[in-house]
Every structure is written in C-alpha cells, then in structure tokens.
Design brief:
Helix content: 40-55%
Length: about 160
C-alpha cells in the first residue's frame, strides 16, 4: 500500500508535514473547538454523531472519517496533527501509516493532498438522507423531521430539542 511505502521512506510522517512549508502554517482554531470536535459537540449533526460513535465503539465508517477530518481542518481550522493524534488514541483499527498519510492529505501537506472539501451538511444529505445514523448517535435530535435532521438550526423553535 502506498501509505506504508511513504511511512518507510519518510518515518517522520506522523509528526511532521511532508511538505515543509506547512510546518509554519498558522492555524486559527482553538483548543475549545478541538475539544468540541472530540466530544461530538460541533453543532454539525453528522460530525457529532460520527465522533460520538468513535468514542463509544472506537470506530466509524471510512467516509465519515473523511468528513470529520475535513470539518476539523477546513471549518474549524485546527492542525491536522491534532486529528491524527485523536484518531490514533481512539480508533481500534488505528494504523500509523494510513492515518498519517490521510491526515497529511487532509491538511494539504501530504503527497496527495485533497483538492475537495466536504461540507458536513451536504455530506450528511448524501450518506444519511433519512437521518437514521444521526438519530442513532444523537438521540436528542431523533424527533426532528427528516428535512431538519442535518440542519437543526433551521427547524422551527417548537421542534428544536
């Protein structure tokens, strides 16, 4: 696998950006935002459901790993290394080569950096259209109609939890 080759050739991959210019990047995200992301309290239902699943069972589907990673890096502006460290600590299938390769790519410092951004609401509508996943991991939102399950802030006040 390509990620194992990269780790073999660049053993610093889990700790240092492959593209050195990214080591000096300034990240505007805060410790509080990072803690909310870890706890599944970002306000984005799909992200929060996935992070709560991660904490509860030590795993989440691959697609959701991409969604939560991009939320951390692109929307919360937190260093990819924080996400990598959290995944390494919480995933039962943590893999140093694959995780560091993918987190580097998410953070734009990797060899195959991602040229796309997944918005957490749009991603939710495509992978969880009826909200079943969100309802399972965020029971506080279970009573919301499908049309608001991924955007609870748009629900009428009488429907919000």
């Amino acid at each position: 696998d390509l990620s194992y080759w990269f780790l073999w050739e660049f053993p610093f991959l889990p700790k240092q950006s492959l593209r050195p210019q990214y080591e000096t990047q300034v990240w505007a995200g805060t410790r509080r935002q990072l803690q909310h992301w870890k706890a599944g309290k970002t306000g984005y239902p799909l992200v929060d459901a996935a992070m709560r699943q991660l904490w509860a069972v030590g795993w989440m589907p691959n697609y959701l790993r991409h969604v939560v990673a991009q939320t951390l890096v692109e929307y919360l502006d937190v260093n990819w290394k924080e996400g990598l460290a959290w995944f390494d600590w919480t995933l039962v299938d943590a893999d140093a080569a694959i995780n560091s390769f993918m987190w580097q790519n998410c953070g734009h410092s990797g060899p195959d950096h991602w040229e796309f951004v997944m918005h957490p609401v749009h991603a939710a509508k495509s992978c969880d259209p009826d909200g079943a996943y969100v309802r399972r991991w965020l029971p506080c939102l279970a009573q919301l109609p499908d049309e608001f399950i991924h955007r609870p802030w748009d629900a009428p006040a009488r429907l919000r939890p």
